[in-house]
Amino acid sequence: MKNSVEIKNLDLQFGAVKVLQNLNLEIGKGEFLVLLGSSGCGKSTLLNCIAGLLDVSGGQIHINDRNVTWAEPSERGIGMVFQSYALYPQMTVEGNLSFGLKNAKLPKSEIETRIKHASEVLQIEPLLKRKPAALSGGQRQRVAIGRALVRDVDVFLFDEPLSNLDAKLRADLRVEIKRLHHKLQNTMIYVTHDQIEAMTLADRIAIMRGGQIMQLGSPDEIYGRPVNKYVADFIGSPSMNFLDGQVKNGAFQVGDLTIPLDGYDFADSSGSAEGPATIGIRPEHVVTGELVENTPFQIEVEINLIEPTGSDTLVDCEVAGHHFRVRMDGQSKVSVGEKLRLGLAPSKASLFDAKTELRL
């Protein structure tokens, strides 16, 4: 697959503070890549570097085989959608969509064609004569996306475009953005701190921390085989359960418990590890009820807290002195203080070195 965007050995410093460090990233043509991480990890900074809104300290940025490291934003062939809608309040929707095209001296007929296409794709035709004050938050964000869409570029950059919206509207617009990508097949780079957005939208996810990419892979790879404890903890809601212990004689020992590691897929070629380690088990991979008997390891716990969420019920308990959460069916009838038998399948667990926190 031909690359649409290539970032080579990128560095960015503000004074003595290193924000991005020797960062390398290749984004394929037509790919939907999500930059995911907590606040301050460098994801929006990287996006702004690609857009040309920040001057880099070192390295190169290539878009469609052209070195644009020092090119102006308008010369990069990108369309950007910001977290704030940044619409001109005195202009109608049509005026907002056409403003940049008029400045670029495009013919009137071409401007009308592009606005018609963008408004049809985003379903905002009835809104063209309205001003932003007469629009809802979701409608304003569609207009902001439309303003990037009319530029007819190969690469779209989204900087947390849904974070100002309520939960239902975020979910609705997430579907619209995914549908838009399927229809246009343009390259899209999307910044978010919301892992649900990342998992549902992305072809690949780049998890960032401290100005570096921790892991780059498909949503399945990130979720199923996190490369380190940080990625494992960051992806998943509720987050992964962690038990600190040690690997000894092909089993994981924590307190008085010995969890067999038969069937565990070790990341290294030796297929074994010895010494202090942390095992990670996702709440949804813990088995309850009749299925417990089919698992290689079972334990009985006491329920400390119950969190019903409708489709699921989250149960809090304690395993070997560690806080432990279990995801159960929403119709499960359990109560605080009740004994619950759990089954664990080590093949679905993640094992991390206690010192390096890398996957074993």
From TrEMBL:
**A GO term from the CC aspect:** ATP-binding cassette (ABC) transporter complex, substrate-binding subunit-containing
Which named protein is this? sn-glycerol-3-phosphate import ATP-binding protein UgpC
Q: Which InterPro entries match?
A: AAA+_ATPase, ABC_transporter-like_ATP-bd, ABC_transporter-like_CS, ABC_transpr_MalK-like, ABC_transpr_MalK/UgpC-like, Mo/tungstate-bd_C_term_dom, NA-bd_OB-fold, OB_MalK-like
- Protein family according to the UniProt entry: Belongs to the ABC transporter superfamily.
User: What EC number(s) would the UniProt record show?
Assistant: 3.6.3.20
Kindly list any coiled-coil regions of this protein.
Answer: none
The keyword Lipoprotein is assigned to this record: no
Enzyme class, first EC level, given as a word: hydrolase
Tell whether Ion transport is among the UniProt keywords: no
A Gene Ontology MF term for this entry?
Answer: ABC-type transporter activity
Q: What are the UniProt keywords, alphabetically?
A: ATP-binding, Hydrolase, Nucleotide-binding, Transport
